[in-house]
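RETRY 2/3 - previous attempt timed out on the joint model. Re-submitting the same 300-residue input unchanged.
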Amino acid sequence: MNQDGVDLETSLGYLLKEASSVLRAAMEEVLRPLGMSVTHYSCLELLAQRPGLSNSELARGAFVTRQSMNVLLQTLEREGYVTRPAEAPVGKVLPTRLTPRGRRSLEKATVAVRSVEVRMLAGLTETEQSGAFRILRSMIHSLRDGNDGA
Amino acid sequence: MNQDGVDLETSLGYLLKEASSVLRAAMEEVLRPLGMSVTHYSCLELLAQRPGLSNSELARGAFVTRQSMNVLLQTLEREGYVTRPAEAPVGKVLPTRLTPRGRRSLEKATVAVRSVEVRMLAGLTETEQSGAFRILRSMIHSLRDGNDGA
DNA sequence: CAACCTATGTCAGAATCCTGACATGAATCA
DNA sequence: TGATTCATGTCAGGATTCTGACATAGGTTG
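RETRY 2/3 succeeded.
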């Protein structure tokens, strides 16, 4: 049961993974009563903020493959949360939009998720939060830069 | 191809997920030539720093279930990277240890992973890094506190 | 204009991981 | 001491996700 003293805890990468893991668990916990998974919620949130997103764009935004997002979209469409045109208005892209039902479902989820984020940020000053924001963006940028160009 | 302007990017939770996702992808990229997955590497690194860890403890440290860690350990044991006693010296816990081969394998992986972490931290001052460390620990603590007690 | 390259949506298969459940050993407590 | 509670290792099953592959549409370049 020794959990202290692990030198891995001096690694920012490990800490990042741990934070992300805990955040995901917390989100799943509050989303489960609503019958929603994290990817499910992410998809709806993305569509609310950027209506007409394609399957591939949604996949990138939710950090899953387009194949996984596709099966999710088919379920969401079948259950009436989103709509996709039967035929692509241009090219092969099928722009997806929230239905009123999807919007209602998202509202409750947003409240739940926001409460988790508030809890996560408790104890941090505004300055610290903006600092964290800037640092995370820097990490993402630095990692992406040398991703395939190395 | 619009990727800017997403309001989700003002969310620290989303940014945390994005950073973790990019970090994982970067680690997988450098680990793949070594025939190693991230969980695989995490397991070895944990064992190097805390020899004798049990399957359940390794699972918690690598953020997977003990069932998943168990199948990984069976593979690692079969391939000679780790050793577990045939019988538990005390209770049911089987303390796991790295073999010389496992240690050698880990060394190369550690170099690769460390290069990713260095790249991630490029452009951040020492002060910013320790700030990020403190902020992430605060987030984890805040989320864990109200995890099941709410 | 034609060939090439990229991106998208989709299908099929495999791999991975998790949920549920069981028996066993240790610790706690009456 | 005996019962209870908790944690561990393990097995079986199912669900989710990913990898690989294909055809098609659009833009690019010669």
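Chain A has a mean pLDDT of 89. Closing ticket.
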